[in-house]
Design goal:
Layout (H helix, E strand, L loop, with lengths): L2 E5 L14 E5 L4 E7 L14 H18 L7 E8 L5 H15 L8 E5 L10 E8 L1
Parallel strand pairs: 4-5
Antiparallel strand pairs: 1-2, 3-6, 4-6
């Protein structure tokens, strides 16, 4: 059985959103590194042209599908790295996470997340990409 503990140690400010500063793993299990997921459906078609919320839903839906395919779920996630293409999306991603993460992470233990604002993703229509590390 894997033991994952999300922590916010003393000595640092509280997280600015739904994430933790540290994911501590005690395991003899596998670590899974999931490539950055984009807002595309199973056939590779863009979902949510100019719609940040729809793109978020597709990206995290893709991550969920990959996790299920590995007999895992979001409780196995130990870290996200999120890439967005405009600083104006910062309040949008924070809002999306505050709204959706409680149902994805029912215990309220949100994994660490690094948020990066970059110039462009693989296609200029992509507004967000999320890379994931999980332990199973």
């Amino acid at each position: 059985m894997i033991e994952i503990e999300m922590k916010n140690p003393a000595g640092v400010a509280a997280p600015l959103g739904p994430y933790s500063h540290v994911a501590r793993l005690k395991t003899h299990q596998e670590l899974i590194f999931i490539a950055g997921q984009l807002p595309v459906d199973i056939e590779g078609n863009l979902v949510g042209q100019n719609d940040f919320d729809r793109q978020c839903a597709q990206v995290y839906g893709n991550i969920g599908s990959i996790l299920r395919g590995l007999d895992a779920d979001f409780s196995n996630v130990v870290q996200f790295t999120t890439y967005i293409t405009d600083e104006d999306y910062i309040p949008l991603i924070r809002g999306w996470r505050k709204r959706e993460f409680p149902s994805m992470f029912a215990n309220g233990a949100y994994p660490p997340n690094t948020l990066l604002v970059i110039d462009q993703l693989a296609d200029e229509s992509f507004m967000i990409e999320v890379q994931t590390v999980a332990a199973i």
